[in-house]
Design goal:
Blueprint lengths: L7 H9 L6 H13 L4 H14 L3 H12 L15 E5 L7 H11 L4 E5 L9 H5 L11 H11 L1 E5 L6 H11 L7 H13 L5 E8 L8 H17 L4 E7 L8 E2 L1 H11 L5 H17 L6 H13 L2 H12 L18 E6 L6 E6 L1 H11 L15 E3 L7 E2 L4 E7 L2 H14 E4 L9 E5 L1
Parallel strand pairs: 1-4, 2-3, 4-5
Antiparallel strand pairs: 5-13, 6-9, 7-11, 8-10, 8-12, 9-11
Helix pairs in contact: 1-3, 2-4, 2-8, 4-9, 4-10, 5-11, 5-12, 5-14, 9-10, 12-13, 15-16
The structure holds uracil.
Length: about 450
């Protein structure tokens, strides 16, 4: 049966005037941006109309499904067990995936993870993994499947054939002021996740200074939209809303975050990072049938850390993906910066840390050369921050605020300025903020 044909301008006019698009019109759009029946200028006009007029929950579900089917959809049904992934909307110091994936796999859930690269002030999982010598993230689907079967987890970049409609639409949105639109963000993220062949998904929707969504209400609306799309597609999705006002953990960058992740797998992780990791992994175990409830999940995760099986999964993943597993026991095998220097509080400093602005810290990473202003930029894996002070900690003259890892004096000076500006002191300890603020299921 030949699919119905439409004129792009009719679809644009319908949305411009506030109408709800039909399933066939949305499918024509998602197909048309890939095969050229929807010209770039027409696609951007429709994106802007969607930006202003919004979409119903049904339209978002149809758009997600049509985008997902614009390319290859990976079928993992023949592999045994539940396949569960996690997606984070991104932040600074967010290395949760590196800990969560081996931890979930060690607890019996298969994790087929396709991640992204860092852009702007937010870091990306693929860049972090590539600081491990030899580690390959661009694998084809047969190799991805083979590693999943062998190790129970794999962490790779999106293959070019997965959701080509999103690649096209995201590049148009990026240059036409249509990125910040909840229906479009929802369809973009969910189409890519659902194309991975997962059975269920856990989302970490971040809000705050260092997040994509600054306001909690926007993050909540996005979380609800993504959970609804999952339900419409028959895949259980749970979303946690987590605060991203200060960096997660004490390290930001690439090598520094890999080291911190390995430390977490050795049972020596900072409290805030472990809190988010345990919460997200716990929901994965429950969705994947590997734990009956949160208490059971906690017990299983604690065992996997204590008996070394989660760390062993990380090693196995390194071997399977070409990385040097010896980094787990010898951090000197990772790229090191030329200058490693402590940044101390000045004379006269006194009080408690009331803010460590995650956005400024992200800009400091970029200033050091560890970030990306454009997708084609190369990142320096060696640079970054470690030992970063946390909100609530006491500061006196000489207290270490962080350790800077730099390869260039001028860049280090700019990063130092940004870190100093990121840290605010107050005479009294600030009221503690809960990191995990909501669950949408
Ligand atoms: N991340 C995505 O993958 N897509 C968006 O639209 C926004 C953030």
């Amino acid at each position: 049966m030949s699919s119905p044909s439409f004129f792009p301008q009719d679809i644009i006019i319908k949305k411009r005037d506030g109408g709800a698009l039909a399933k066939e019109e949305i499918e024509f759009f998602a197909r048309g941006v890939v095969n050229g029946q929807f010209a770039d200028y027409q696609a951007t006009a429709l994106l802007m109309a969607i930006f202003w007029r919004g979409m119903t929950a049904q339209e978002v579900a149809w758009l997600t499904d049509a985008m997902m089917r614009s390319g290859d959809v990976i079928d993992l049904r023949d592999l045994p067990g539940a396949k569960v992934d996690k997606h984070s909307t991104g932040g600074v110091g967010d290395k949760v995936s590196l800990i969560l994936a081996p931890l979930a796999a060690a607890c019996g859930v298969m994790v087929p993870m396709m991640s992204g690269r860092g852009l702007g002030h937010t870091g990306g999982t693929l860049d972090k993994l590539e600081s491990i010598p030899g580690f390959r993230v661009m694998l084809d689907v047969p190799e991805f499947r083979a590693i999943l079967q062998q190790v129970g987890m794999a962490m790779i970049g999106q293959t070019p054939k997965v959701v080509p409609a999103d690649r096209k639409l995201y590049s148009l949105r990026d240059v036409t002021g249509t990125v910040e639109c909840i229906p479009l963000i929802c369809a973009s993220i969910m189409s890519k996740k659902l194309a991975e062949g997962i059975d269920s998904l856990v989302l970490d929707v971040k809000f705050g200074k260092g997040a994509f969504m600054k306001k909690k209400d926007d993050a909540l609306a996005l979380a609800r939209a993504m959970v609804a799309v999952g339900k419409a597609g028959g895949k259980p999705v749970r979303a946690l809303l987590t605060a991203m006002n200060q960096p997660l953990g004490r390290c930001a960058g690439h090598t520094t975050e890999v080291i911190e992740s390995i430390e977490c797998l050795k049972g020596r992780g900072p409290a805030d990072l472990m809190e988010v990791t345990y919460a997200l992994t716990g929901h994965m175990l429950i969705l994947g049938g590997a734990a009956t409830d949160e208490a059971d999940a906690r017990a299983k995760m604690a065992t996997a850390i204590a008996n070394g099986s989660a760390l062993q999964k990380f090693r196995e993943m390194c071997v399977a993906q070409g990385g040097d597993p010896r980094v787990v026991d010898d951090y000197s095998l990772l790229p090191a910066a030329k200058q490693i220097r402590a940044l101390a509080a000045p004379a006269g400093a006194s009080g408690f840390v009331s803010a460590v602005d995650a956005l400024k810290c992200g800009h400091a990473i970029m200033a050091l050369g560890g970030g990306r202003a454009a997708v084609t930029d190369k990142v320096d894996h060696a640079v970054g921050l470690s030992d970063l002070i946390k909100i609530g900690e006491r500061v006196e003259p000489g207290t270490r605020l962080c350790t800077l890892h730099a390869n260039d004096e001028a860049k280090a000076a700019r990063a130092e300025e940004l870190i100093r500006a990121a840290i605010t002191l107050s005479p009294e300890p600030p009221a503690p903020e809960s990191l995990i603020q909501d669950l949408v299921a």
